[in-house]
Specification:
alpha/beta; seven-stranded mixed beta sheet
């Protein structure tokens, strides 16, 4: 199912072009039409302008840019020749990506543990378990198991004790919550899947950040959703509110999926003002806001003025925001426990729909998480996790800067991932070459739609020390092969800028 596309206004396109860093192009001083064509192409490749978006008429764009119509016409012709623009007489022109080998869309599957000796795996942003907290939680769960074993063991909404603990966790964060507002799921993906089954019939529009979490994008594609991409703000600022207002007003999506806290893959943290404004804009459009808080406990740097309140704190009616949480990133992915916080009526509907899916989450793992949340172990394990990620972040950043000084990134204030611009080279080709050299890294298009973000890779903070340095060295070798055109049969796509 193709995603929903829009029309890009002349003023909007002019503003996007003006916001680009044109220093390198200015230094080369290309012809005006080529500079304009390069700017539009880069906007498409970086997801700032969607594929299949209708562009303004030549005359209208020339007025907005204060250039001649001949310049715009020549730029459009160059874009058509490069495969980034399609036109039809009487219908206008719209953005495209060149035909050829399909670009990756799915996320990378985790490597089996026995492959660790030969391959550095940067594909999975999931650290190892924090000890001794995992062992302590499992022992506590075994101690509590006899009592649970005297029940039927079927808890579609989750163990009552865990629902109470999670409700108390939200209340302590400034969002008063009752146990009736919690449903325990099999990981965050189980939570998102349940929400999609309830709210996203085949062909329904869903607005997503662009880039976004690869697994959720794929889940929604397979559910038949029409994805509406909304670009992120530049740098680590989080949401682009003008873009969100435009999309919500134009497309009226049934649902919007966002990450306000340490966004995956960019690591961006969205401030309170934008959280409040997006809740209001979604309410006005009749759009349900699904907020993924998987990374919320992974603040690595102090936030001036304190951490922003959860998005649900601005949902004063209580029915406009559904929050998804998980133990996977803060604690351990192997626990496979996630949850949904929503209005009681929504929870009842989600629980009723679960009868056709997985019926419930494993009891033993729920008991382990209950102990962590009620014993203080969650906070101590989270602090241990944050300390380890800070060390890995420092090592990964230093290694990339040492081996790949032309690659660009903004060091995020939290989360698990670094979103890296690959110096004008194809991230997909670098990923292909890297795997042959013993380093596995996901390329940018896995986190976007229609081939966007070809000039990026995502690097997680899951390696450190000598391993981080070796990973960066192998990526540098892979980049060298791509730059030399020796990375495979699609060498023509190696350079994107």
């Amino acid at each position: 199912m193709p995603h929903w596309t829009s029309t890009v206004g002349a003023t909007q396109l002019a503003q996007l072009l003006a916001s680009q860093d044109n220093g390198e192009r200015a230094a080369r001083r290309p012809p005006a039409y080529r500079a304009l064509a390069d700017g539009v192409r880069l906007l498409v490749l970086e997801g700032r302008v969607p594929v299949a978006a209708r562009l303004p008429a030549e005359r209208e764009l020339a007025v907005a840019l204060r250039v001649s119509r001949t310049t715009v016409a020549s730029a459009f012709e160059a874009l058509r020749a490069d495969g980034f623009l399609e036109s039809r007489r009487g219908s206008g022109s719209w953005t495209a990506v060149p035909p050829g080998r399909p670009l990756p869309a799915r996320a990378l599957d985790p490597l089996p543990p026995d492959a660790a000796g030969s391959m550095i795996d940067l594909g999975c942003a999931a650290p190892t378990a924090p000890e001794p907290w995992l062992s302590r939680a499992c022992r506590a769960a075994l101690d509590a198991l006899p009592s649970a074993a005297r029940t039927h063991g079927d808890f579609p909404a989750g163990l009552p004790a865990l629902r109470e603990a999670l409700a108390a966790h939200y209340t302590a964060r400034g969002v008063p919550t009752m146990p009736e507002q919690i449903m325990v799921t099999t990981g965050a993906m189980g939570a998102v899947a349940a929400i999609c089954r309830l709210f996203v019939p085949q062909g329904e529009r869903v607005a997503v950040e662009h880039p976004s979490y690869a697994n959720v994008l794929q889940l929604m594609r397979e559910a038949g959703a029409r994805l509406v991409p909304v670009p992120m703000a530049a740098g680590a600022g989080g949401w682009d509110l003008p873009a969100w207002r435009r999309v919500l007003a134009e497309s009226s999506p049934r649902l919007a999926y966002v990450m306000a806290d340490y966004h995956n893959p960019t690591g961006a943290l969205t401030d309170e003002e934008r959280r409040r404004d997006l809740v209001a804009a979604a309410r006005a459009a009749g759009t349900l806001l699904v907020v993924d808080e998987t990374m919320a406990d992974l603040a690595l740097d102090p936030v001036p003025g304190g951490p922003p309140r959860p998005v649900a704190a601005f949902d004063h009616g209580g029915a406009g925001v559904v929050t998804v949480g998980s133990a996977s990133k803060t604690f351990w992915a192997g626990l496979r426990i996630g949850w949904v916080r929503a209005a009681p009526e929504v929870i009842r509907r989600l629980v009723a729909g679960r009868a056709y899916a997985d019926l419930g989450s494993p009891v033993l793992e729920q008991l382990a998480l209950t102990w962590l949340l009620t014993s203080g172990g969650w906070e101590e394990a989270a602090e241990q996790r944050r300390a380890g990620i800070r060390r890995s972040r420092e090592d990964v950043v230093a290694a990339l800067r040492g081996h790949l000084p032309d690659w660009e990134f903004t060091v995020p204030p939290g989360g698990l991932t670094l979103w890296v611009r690959t110096g004008g080279l194809s991230g997909s080709r670098i990923a292909q070459a890297g795997e042959r050299l013993g380093v596995r890294v996901p390329s940018g298009p896995r986190f976007g739609l229609d081939g966007a973000f070809e000039g990026y890779v995502r690097v997680p903070f899951t390696v450190s020390g000598a391993v981080a340095d070796q990973a960066a060295a192998r990526l540098a070798t892979a980049a060298g092969l791509v730059a030399a055109g020796a990375a495979g049969p699609d060498a023509a796509l190696a350079h994107i800028a």
